């Protein structure tokens, strides 16, 4: 259950939230189970936040900092993530559909066991990301940076890997 104080601060707007985060760097935001659907959280500092089971349907997270956030079992449907930093984020068993991932940093993110078929990861930073047993069939990975990524058991059938960097990737 989300911390109600944290939700109240977030409802005051992104600027108030980011100011609070700056003044309280030791606090780990707890927004678990919150419904943040259709909320504009662009440029929000959600680094390290607990976002398990959170509803982020049609939420604007463009340019948001979600590095190290736990988004396990969260619903991300038509979520805008362009330019967002999801490095080190946990997306275990999250429901992902129709995402805008353009220019997103997903370095060291965990997508193990996901169905990511037909996803557009074109030009996305995915180095050190974990795609163990993920379904990437038909995904557009053209120009993606997959250096050191773990793709063991991943389905890459008909995936577009043109100009992708697979240096030191584990296949």
UniProtKB/TrEMBL annotation:
> Which Pfam families does the record associate with it?
Pentapeptide (PF00805)
The protein's name is Pentapeptide repeat-containing protein
Species of provenance: Desmonostoc muscorum LEGE 12446
**InterPro entries, alphabetically?**
5peptide_repeat, Pentapeptide-BTB/POZ_domain
């Amino acid at each position: 259950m989300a911390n109600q104080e944290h939700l109240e601060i977030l409802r005051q707007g992104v600027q108030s939230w980011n100011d609070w985060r700056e003044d309280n760097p030791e606090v780990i935001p707890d927004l678990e189970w919150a419904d943040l659907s259709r909320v504009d959280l662009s440029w929000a500092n959600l680094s390290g936040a607990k976002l398990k089971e959170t509803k982020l349907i049609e939420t604007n997270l463009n340019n948001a900092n979600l590095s190290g956030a736990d988004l396990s079992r969260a619903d991300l449907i038509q979520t805008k993530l362009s330019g967002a930093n999801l490095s080190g984020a946990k997306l275990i068993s999250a429901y992902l559909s129709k995402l805008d991932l353009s220019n997103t940093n997903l370095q060291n993110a965990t997508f193990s066991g996901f169905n990511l078929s037909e996803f557009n990861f074109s030009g996305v930073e995915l180095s050190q990301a974990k795609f163990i047993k993920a379904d990437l069939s038909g995904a557009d990975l053209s120009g993606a940076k997959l250096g050191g990524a773990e793709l063991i058991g991943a389905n890459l059938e008909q995936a577009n890997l043109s100009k992708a960097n697979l240096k030191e990737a584990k296949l």
